[in-house]
Amino acid sequence: MLEAISPMLTLAAADAGAQEGLRASLLVLVFPLLASIACGLCAVFGVKSKLPAWITVGALAASFVVTLMIWGQAGHNTFIAHGYEWITLAWGDGPGQQLVANLSLYIDSLTLLWMLFVTGLATLIALYASEYMSHDVGPGYCRFFAYFSLFVFSMACLVMGDNLLLLYLGWEGVGLCSYLLIGYFYTKPSAVAAAKKAFIVNRIGDLGLALGIFSVFVTFGTVEFAPLFEMLREGVDGAGAPLAGSWQATWIPVFFMIGAFGKSAQFPLYVWLPDAMEGPTPVSALIHAATMVTAGVYLIARMMPLYLLDGTHFALALVAWGGGITALLAATIGMAQFDIKRIMAYSTVSQLGFMFAGLGVLTSAGAAFHVFTHAFFKATLFLCCGAVMHGFAGQLDLRKLSGVGFMKGWGIVGIAMFIGCLNLAGFPFTAGYFSKDMILAQTFATPGYAMLGWVLLLTAGITAYYTFRVFFRVFVGPKLYEPGDEHHGDDNHSHDHDHAHEDFHPHPPGWAINSVLALLAVLSIAAAATYFINKPDHGWVGSMVHNSTADVTSPHEGTFLGMDPHKAMYYVSAIVGFIGIAIAFMLHYVGRRTSEKANADKLLPAVGPVATWAQGKWYIDELYDAVIRQPLLVLSHVFHIVDKLLVDGLVNLFGRLPTMTARALRPSQNGVLQSYAAGMAAGLVFVLLVVWALL
Amino acid sequence: MTELLPMLTTGATLAQIGDVFMHEVTLFHYLFVSAAMFALGVIGFLSRRNIIIMFLCTEMMFQGAGLAMIAFGRYHMNLTGDVFVIFILTIAAAESALALALVVLLYRRRETLDASAWAELRG
């Protein structure tokens, strides 16, 4: 039945003639790069003020403004902003014998959509970080903002590049910056381990992407988007042969999917994201919620025509189910965690799963809309958690905090958190509600995916539960707290560790954090309004996607229990969300007197060991450890022995050879004069014999 | 005299060899004496342990070589060999002065002239 859909698929008409122009849009890349260099120079000259933060905020804001201007000029057209020649190789005149990759930008509405929220959010989060990182003013502060700007530059390369090589450059760049920022507290072993884990797991995904790019070049003879999409519209490869049914049509999308799953933390490569919470919170908010992890979604959306090439939609089915499984798995883990930042991390993984499911069931508009709304509300949620962490000396355990929202000076944090939670839980008429509905409804509307729909619906309920579990435990209820064990320099209480609690006063966030949180909360709400702009196209985001290469025609065959899923889902998902919130309310708010215990603990015996398993993250990390890490360790020990015995042995043998030769020849030097003379005489005789023999 | 070598290797009688020698005194005779002196020197050097005797044996080898040079000089009718020998004799004289002084010193150290008393530099 999937074959029936493919004729309905149409590609966007807008990119038919990609025009040259808008060269000024290169400034979007230039500003963050300059900011990064400037912050590096600040580090060199030992700047001990907040200067790097203002440079970064200024540069990112400038990028955002430029992006807005491009959007105003480009509208729904596709442009190629030619920058500079980067790589031009030719080894013949035939097709596929030139490799051209320029430093040029491919600007269509999908690019602009992504860049708008990347630069916009990055500006806000940099502003937040200016205060959040204030205890580190000095070399660390410069380093942080240098990486931060470099990250935005890489993300811009990834999203705006007009060829796959530039995309790959940005892809690796964000991976590198993510590594650097997760390992920001490089004296902390857990942070270093998390940074390495993120880098290595991403590497596996990057291999997939690299294979994908190689295959694209081999198949189409180009890595540039414009000619690539031209060929994809015709459904032919570089030599003009039809591609339908070929191995490339099936496997290139799978390669790209592996890359996307690595970067966007999908099963089985999701394990790095929760650990990435070791980095400073603004990093978690920017990279691991709002922007970097959406690169995978972007990649698949950008390459949508490639995914549609295969009539059986094999890769799309993998994407959909990979997303669905990840969504459920991460949500169940999130239910059982106690670290609020980690819960948010798992919810990110889970929500990314929703986006991939959306892509898989052919609602790229829904997926992109969810990316868009999620960027705002997840940034809000993370930054609220960060504010709590900042104010309570690193305390993140939801059993040790209660009623934070009602404390003096924490009002804005409480309200922003509430708005973020409503969005994540899919409360009716919030942005998260609309975007999640689009995906859920389309899952049921696409034939063959009803099962996935039910999985996602269940996940939506779990999401509402664990989101409000955090809210009801930490932000409302009796006002109780126990500080963490991190003491920032700006505490001004030079307290003893023993008396930490007596002396400790949580410091509420300052103007930068509060204003960013307020603005983000407003934007999270405002994101819902975009759904009503251009309603037939599924909102503003839908119309943006519709005019890009990511456009697909969503099928409308399936039903939800006999009803039109697009209508029914508004009610169903609202009800599911309410149920989730109500359960959280009953278990974590009603009758709670302390911060440690809630009604939920009474239920623990009923679920048996399942709660412990979920708390142990289903032991996936341990499984990887046993199946991959330990065998590799054993193997490395084997290689160590081989190295020690064989390689070192050979080298040492050559080292000892002269000694051994000397030892063998030493007796000849016996100190007896006559024996030396005899030796000489024998030599003379030998020479004479030789001469005689030759004569 | 060139017929002597094949005679030695093929095994001629002593009388036949004597015939070759008895005709006239040629270069070969000189060279034969020179080689004999050199060989005697070598044998003496190898067989004796007394440092002075060993030193005398080296002198013998020297003089054997000197004799060969004089003979070649005469054979070619020039003085090259003679000049060489004068130099050799001068050096040998200087060297024997030094060597005998060393021998005296060595004797004072060990109260013996046995060369094997000085085997400390063995490996």
Summarize the structure.
The complex is a heterodimer of chains A (695) and B (123). Chain A is mainly alpha-helical and 695 residues long.
Can you describe what's shown?
The complex is a heterodimer of chains A (695) and B (123). With 695 residues, chain A is mostly helical. Chain A is built from 26 helices and five strands. Helices cover 66% and strands 4% of the residues of chain A. In chain A, strand 2 and strand 3 form a beta hairpin. In chain A, helix 14 (340-360) crosses helix 17 (431-445). Chain A is globular, with a radius of gyration of 31 Å. Mean pLDDT of chain A is 85; it is low at 1-17 and 488-500. In chain B, helix 3 (27-47) packs antiparallel against helix 4 and helix 4 runs antiparallel to helix 5 (80-110). In chain B, 76% of the residues lie in helices and 0% in strands. The model of chain B has no long low-confidence stretch (mean pLDDT 86). Chain B is mainly alpha-helical and 123 residues long. Chain B has helices spanning 4-10, 14-22, 27-47, 51-75, 80-110. Chain B has a domain at 49-115: Orthogonal Bundle (Helix Hairpins).
